[in-house]
Amino acid sequence: MLRIGMLTSGGDCQALNAAMRGVAKGIFAKVKDVEIYGFRDGYKGLIYSTFDMMTEKDFSGILTRGGTILGTSRQPFKQMRVIGEDGVDKVEAMKHTYHKLNLDCLVILGGNGTHKTANLLREEGLNVITLPKTIDNDLWGTDMTFGFQSAVDIATDTIDRIHTTATSHSRVFIIEVMGHKVGWVTLHAGIAGGADIILLPEIPYDLNVIAEYIKKRSAAGKRFTIIAVAEGAIAKEEAELPKKKLKELQEKKKAKYPSVAYELAEKIESKCDKEVRITVPGHTQRGGSPCPYDRVLATRLGAAAAEMILCHEYGYMVAIKEGETCKVPLKEVAGKLKTVDPKAKIISEARTIGISFGDK
Ligand code: F6P
Description:
Blueprint: E1 2-8, H1 16-30, E2 34-39, H2 43-47, E3 51-54, H3 90-100, E4 105-110, H4 112-123, E5 128-132, H5 148-169, E6 172-177, H6 184-192, E7 197-199, H7 207-219, E8 225-230, H8 236-239, H9 243-256, H10 260-271, E9 276-279, H11 292-310, E10 316-321, E11 324-329, H12 330-333, H13 345-352
Parallel strand pairs: 1-2, 1-4, 4-5, 5-10, 6-8, 6-9, 7-8
Antiparallel strand pairs: 2-3, 10-11
Helix pairs in contact: 1-11, 5-6
The structure holds 6-O-phosphono-beta-D-fructofuranose.
6-O-phosphono-beta-D-fructofuranose binds at residues 11, 111, 134-136, 178-180, 231, 286.
Binding site for Mg(2+): 112
Subcellular location: Cytoplasm
Subunit structure: Homodimer or homotetramer.
């Protein structure tokens, strides 16, 4: 008898179901005597022992379905060791559920925070395999996470649609793309959607540079300027502040602006004689059906995870590198962020065709 626990944790994204389907199909194809425990709402399900027994049928017909059939929740890593009001030590509770159900392993689908907790469970002696999900593509150790390409498709579609109305009205448009810490989605959607200015958390911007760029475009007879800004984009002078001061400033700004795009719009309007409008696609970027690329990637990663389970290989994240699936030790992944390198070729190539990153 093989007993597998499965859970999805953190913000959802496209292709979570496709990945779980890949794991389950790979397992059921080889082993019939198997029980899959689908923990509800991420680590919460493991902590409070709430789960559904999943059959082969539960994993059928879900390849194209968005969201996660198991539900998810955010369980911050820094609270994992904190005993809450309910008196529960979360790590001990998760270990208890695992041993009580006599599980052979846990398959955990998640992003950065999820991987930190998964590694903690590994250190506590549980057999863990993880799959890299997140629209942010910021997991170290894999070239690509599933969800990313689908989010890029959606953000690009938004930018495409804004182009026509921006031209008609001769406006500056700011499209705010998801990504608080990293700018992968903004960078790719910005290039794919033909944005004129791309602002990333990794490349602090100078408002004067942005204003000059917009004025130059107007002087050259260009009717519009499209700015793709990541949620976490930051001005140069703020990036130079000590951490504590920056946090205070960000708290103040939170009370004034709903998000970064609103602050930017106000600043640009004060410097340029242009109407500025904002579009925030928000969680649509994580919603709906996965794109074909993500379906293939998630299926491959799921199948590779199934192969590893059948070989009793645990303690790894299943990754994709140079087109091939591979395994990366969890201890190497946990706590590392894959950010956009400002010196990467993709950045210099974008600069070559005239895209501004607002820095020079
Ligand atoms: O981590 C993925 C992500 O989509 C980020 O890009 C975004 O900033 C955040 O989640 C939004 O989180 P929530 O779903 O909690 O609003």
